[in-house]
From TrEMBL:
The entry's keywords: GTP-binding, Lipoprotein, Nucleotide-binding, Prenylation
UniProt name for this protein: Uncharacterized protein
Family statement: Belongs to the small GTPase superfamily. Rab family.
UniProt keyword Nucleotide-binding, yes or no: yes
Taxonomy, superkingdom: Eukaryota
UniProt GO molecular function: GTP binding; GTPase activity
InterPro entries in the cross-refs: P-loop_NTPase, Small_GTP-bd, Small_GTPase, Small_GTPase_Rab
Amino acid sequence: MNRPPPIATNNHDQAQQSTFKVMLLGDSGVGKTCLLVRFKDDTFLCGSFIATVGIDFRNKTIVINDKQVKLQIYDTAGQERFRSVTHSYYRDANALLLLYDVTSITSFNNVRAWLSDIHEYAHSDVIVMLIANKVDKTTERVVTREMGEKLASEYNVTYTETSAKTGLNVEFCFKAIGQALLQQIDSTITNGETPSQTLNTLVQLNDQSQRQPLCCSYS
């Protein structure tokens, strides 16, 4: 299936704006809405709140390489009874962010079912990022980084870790997705990589920067 085209619009005298559709997927309670609110409003939804019913939708415009990129972000319900509703949105998505909760082995095990749905309903070259969320809960963590990376490698998707509570990697995820999608339509930033390969490269560079020790020590 061919990928859905991005939408390009002119915004007065500003540079051409590219619009991409991004979907958040995963079981109920893995933190999809919290991730979106952290990115959109830089706040954290603490305490109890009403679970998403069906589909929620928000926009945010970011600047990448001096270009305006508008992300149309769809926050989907994770409950089984809403799965058939969300399937109809897959085919129009440019990117899919699939979340699981590192404190829930069930949400991790269900990733395979979500990836199966993606394979069946999304277009063949959709960009997929597997996100291990809630990594701030170190003492409660049951799904290791190695487990997540192994699963991502098995399905040839990009893997990263986030915390909607602390903000770790949240903005990075959306900006990396935006940069990879922009590459599909902007030949000036193409470096011989596919958008998925570009996303992998950006994640690897981000991981390396976070793992680097402090450069200077004093004795």
